[in-house]
Design a protein that fits this description.
The protein is α+β, with helices and mostly antiparallel strands and about 850 residues long. The chain is about 20% helix and about 30% strand. α1 crosses α8. The longest helix is centred in the C-terminal third of the chain and has 33 residues, at about 570-605. It starts with 15 loop residues before the first strand and ends in a 5-residue tail after the last helix.
């Protein structure tokens, strides 16, 4: 079960004892019976209206286990290295730093059955705990370069080990990749024992490893904390949590997280509601692992006279029990709609996933599908003139609406870019990357939150964690998924499946969904019928063999992919051509899936009332390689391969597709050449949906352009991305501009990880985007007039960004789950 900190607790009140539905329970003041009835002209999210409800019972139990915490800034003699160890090798030899227990991996700590891996573990004896009472282990750790993974094992045993040839523990558990850059990270690892056992939980072990080629490497453990299964549900008797289900080894695609109302048994939450025509209540039923069976009921009416519409005893803690309750016979009436829960043991937690009351559609507001093809560059789309037919379906879709020929992302990669266009705030205003994370400040309202507050049903479905919890973008989503898939090149299959299952469970309208697929991001593994479209099987096998050889070369500073290919004697042109071919096949698959999505919307009758926006978060160069440049030798005085000088304004980095279609409202066949920014996405969606604009936004609505109205003026396009220096608290990064023909890039501060000789202010770089869209040759020496102009302009923008940043405060950090970290590693964002 996964959780987030986005809690909406209801404070405890002085409660009096009353009898409700045959149950004796305490109750709060009868607010709901005197409140104005809630209406459901648009879908009504019951969990958002606790202030209007009568709440009875739902007392927080007093016996919830407190977290068990070990802090390693002080000695913890209970944690010991494993003994015995395989013959001929040594146990890890811990040492203490000022704030951590340091665990080194050396040649003497080889894995007993895999000599290419170094692996060891430490463990602690537990005071006979019951593992069912606990949800996850939270580990704060600092991993040096080369460290790979960390995981859990349980209950030391020499008689029945989990792996007879290896570790003397009864069961293994969850695991997580490590962020190996020396930063302190918080890892949220679910317990998930692979073998059940009877009796107490007696031992907890933490294993960690690295490849032998990367030794020596160290893991510094700052703290370990056991967190109760009820930890997120003890701040209040009734509240809201984002809750996940992970049934066994099922893929996350089958079990997205749900925004859920929780209550403690016995409990009742009753809402005064005016029932619409065709009314139905859609909800997922759930319980916590340790709580056993809970009786759940949906009733309408007061006390013992209430009509019971649903009553069910539910005990499956691994799955949601999706239910639909028919309320159509009550149309036009104002009733008390009550959610009730009881159990044999008081204090058990009942979960109501996205309890939504909807009726016959009466709103003119469109459904919104905000579809991001992660890493899609216009340079490789036939829709934008590429010489391969990679996007025939998008060509037909775009013909029904508007296409922007010069749309730009806000940054060069997913994490900063997505956070910016979801809030219409530049990355520097949001605070930049902090310790590898990118939390959107709590008072920066996201697109999902805007839509949810307007009564729209909301879903965030992505296979890239950088577009999800890494930036706190799960906020406001009824259904949320940001974990990986088995094949990145077919992620759209899983995400579309999530979408249609959600629509079946929650058919009310309007809805908003944010897709972010990784079909064309990197690690291209196209499938039939697109595999073989541009590369034959023999060339593909040869390329995959080359790629394996490249990946086996130890990482060496200054030795990049091109140097590695030369070392191996691999033909550069053939290698890059094959990689491009696989990318193009993956793009063709993505295009086909989009075509199928639109076809199904047409068949369901939803297409005519749906606003579709197709775009990207960055170009292909940020997610993989820029094949167009790598296939040819660059000019001798180019700046492309200087890490300090790669500009975001380069076509392959930030020029992205942007298509907007709304049948009957946006005229077909429109093409716009004016430069626009993805930071315009939020105000555009809100404007077209008839919703108020954000109080603070840095983009502007494109609706006047799309609807042929006055009120839109062209602006320079600003891009920026920044990181917070952990030592100084200062931001360093770049701010850039696209201004008609010219593009300019200004470095702010410098990366503290650079060697001292490179820690110097770089000159402002200027490019002619018309004649040099790849930005290979900066004109900063030939055009000092442009350098002066854009230096002044960007420095002014930077000051404005920092002033605006003062309006926002950083959000709290949510620990990353192992699935999210695995996703980030697979996408190349962490090692």
């Amino acid at each position: 079960m996964g959780r987030s900190p986005s809690r909406m607790p209801l404070p405890a009140a002085a409660l009096a004892m009353v009898a409700v539905g045959g149950l004796s329970m305490p109750t709060c003041t009868d607010r709901g019976s005197r409140a104005t009835p809630l209406s459901a002209e648009v879908p009504l999210h019951l969990e958002d209206h606790l202030e209007a409800a009568d709440i009875e019972g739902s007392e927080v139990p007093g016996e919830v286990p407190e977290p068990v915490l070990w802090r390693f800034d002080e000695p913890q003699p209970g944690w010991k290295p494993l003994h015995p160890v395989p013959p001929g090798s040594a146990a890890v030899e811990p040492s203490r730093t000022a704030d951590a227990l340091r665990l080194p991996l050396t040649e003497d700590t080889r894995h007993p059955t895999n000599p290419e891996l170094l692996e060891r573990l430490i463990y602690v004896e537990l005071p006979d705990l019951d593992i069912e009472d606990w949800a996850f282990v939270e580990i704060r750790a600092r991993a040096s370069e080369g460290m790979r993974n960390m995981g859990l094992m349980y209950n030391f045993t020499e008689t029945e080990p989990f792996r007879p040839d290896d570790l003397p523990f009864y069961s293994g558990g969850g695991r997580s990749p490590l962020v190996a850059d020396g930063s302190v990270q918080t890892y949220h690892i679910e317990l998930e024992p692979r073998r059940p056992w009877e009796g107490p939980w007696t031992h907890l072990a933490i294993w960690f490893n690295c490849r032998a080629d990367d030794a020596p490497a160290t893991l510094d453990v700052l703290s370990v904390r056991l967190v109760s299964a009820k930890a997120d549900f003890t701040a209040a008797g009734v509240g809201v949590e984002t809750v996940g289900r992970r049934p066994g080894d099922a893929a996350p695609a089958e079990a997205p997280d749900r925004r859920s109302l929780f209550m403690h048994t016995p409990g009742r939450v009753a809402y005064p509601v005016r029932i619409p025509e065709g009314a139905r209540l859609d909800v997922g039923l759930g319980v916590l692992p340790a709580d056993g069976a809970v009786e759940l009921a949906v009733r309408v009416g007061p006390g013992s006279d209430a009509e019971t519409l649903l009553r069910e005893t539910y005990s499956d803690h691994r799955h949601w029990g999706q239910r639909s309750v028919d309320l159509s016979h009550l149309a036009g009436q104002t009733v008390l709609l009550a959610l009730e829960a009881d159990a044999a043991r008081p204090g058990n937690v009942a979960l109501w996933a996205a309890p939504t009351l909807s009726g016959t559609r009466s709103s003119e507001r469109p459904n919104v599908i905000f579809y991001i093809i992660d890493g899609a560059s216009t340079d490789y789309m036939s829709l934008y003139g590429y010489n391969r037919r990679t996007t025939p379906h998008l060509e037909r879709i775009a013909a029904e609406g508007a296409l922007f020929e010069r749309a730009y992302s806000n940054s060069s990669w997913t994490r900063p870019s997505t956070a910016s266009y979801m809030t219409s705030l530049q990355h520097s205003v949001l605070g930049g990357l902090r310790n590898g994370r990118n939390p959107v400040p709590a008072n920066a309202v996201t697109m999902a939150e805007h839509m949810h507050r307007a009564g729209v049903q909301t879903a965030v479905l992505t296979s890239n964690a950088s577009a999800g919890r890494m930036s706190d973008l799960h906020r406001g989503a009824d259904v949320f998924r940001d974990a990986g898939v088995q094949n990145w090149s077919t992620s759209s299959v899983d995400l579309h499946g999530n979408f249609w299952r959600w629509r079946e469970a929650y058919p009310g309208e309007p809805y908003w969904v944010h897709f972010q697929t990784t079909d064309v991001h990197n690690d291209h593994t196209p499938v039939a019928p697109f595999a073989g479209l541009f590369i034959d099987p023999e060339r593909r096998r040869r390329f995959e063999g080359w790629l394996q050889q490249v990946n086996e070369i130890p990482e060496t500073p200054g030795v990049g992919i091109r140097e590695a290919l030369d070392q191996l004697g691999i033909d550069q042109a053939e290698f890059w051509s094959a990689n491009r071919d696989l990318h193009d096949e993956s793009m063709a698959h993505q295009d086909h899936r989009l075509g199928q999505l639109v076809a199904r919307l047409r068949a369901s009758g939803e297409w005519e009332r749906t606003l579709l926006i197709v775009a990207s978060d960055h170009g292909v160069a940020a997610g993989a390689w820029d094949y167009r440049l790598l296939l040819a030798d660059p000019p001798p005085d180019h700046v492309y391969y200087d890490d300090l000088a790669v500009p975001m304004v380069r076509s392959g980095v930030s020029r992205i597709p942007l298509i907007v279609v709304w049948p009957g409202r946006i005229a077909p066949g429109q093409r716009f050449r004016q430069p626009v920014s993805m930071i315009d996405a939020l105000p555009t969606v809100l404007d077209l949906a008839g919703l108020p604009a954000p109080e603070v936004m840095m983009g502007q609505s494109l609706a006047p352009l799309l609807l042929g109205e006055a009120g839109w003026e062209p602006r320079p396009v600003i891009l920026d991305e920044f990181e917070l220096d952990r030592d100084t608290g200062e931001l360093h990064g770049r701010i850039e501009v696209v201004d008609g023909r010219w593009g300019a890039s200004l470095e702010i501060g410098w990366d503290p990880d650079l060697p001292p000789e490179r820690r110097r202010p770089a000159p402002l770089l200027v490019y002619d985007l018309w004649s040099d869209p790849d930005c290979l040759l900066s004109l900063h020496q030939e055009r000092p007039d442009l350098v002066r102009k854009y230096t002044r302009f960007l420095e002014k923008q930077w000051r404005a960004h920092r002033a605006l940043a003062g309006r926002f405060t950083p959000a709290g950090e949510s620990p990353l789950t192992s699935e999210q970290l695995q996703t980030l590693r697979a996408l190349g964002y962490i090692e």
